[in-house]
Amino acid sequence: MKPIHQIIKKPLITEKSTLLKDDGNTVAFEVTMRANKIEIKRAIEQAFNVKVKDVRTMVVAGKPKRFGRNFGRRSNIKKAYISLAEGDIDFFGV
């Protein structure tokens, strides 16, 4: 298994992820493109000492952007929505 810091890049703190955390006991992370659901589940359980119920992943396509007179493209990212078991609701200690 890869080290945890190579699988989990950062938590996603957005309006949608905050609502999911409050309503559905779900948290969102940005993960590496090569990580699969099993690796993500093990990394989250090991890093935060929680019980993961379900992992859903999606690849978000990078937007085309303009840099002066040149056109470029942002990188694609992979998101993981992790459903936690009941009782693991205080995830970030807020």
Task: Describe the protein's architecture and organization.
This protein has 94 residues and is α+β, with helices and mostly antiparallel strands. It has helices at residues 4-7, 15-24, 37-48, and strands at 8-11, 26-31, 52-60, 64-67, 70-73, 77-84. It has one domain (4-84): Alpha-Beta Plaits, CATH 3.30.70.330. It contains three helices and six strands. The strands form two sheets. Strands 1-2-6-3 form a four-stranded antiparallel sheet. It has a two-stranded antiparallel ribbon with strand order 4-5. The longest helix has 12 residues, at 37-48.
Please state the structural category: alpha+beta
Termini separation comes to 30 Å
Radius of gyration: 15 Å
Oligomer: single chain
- Average pLDDT, to the nearest integer? 90
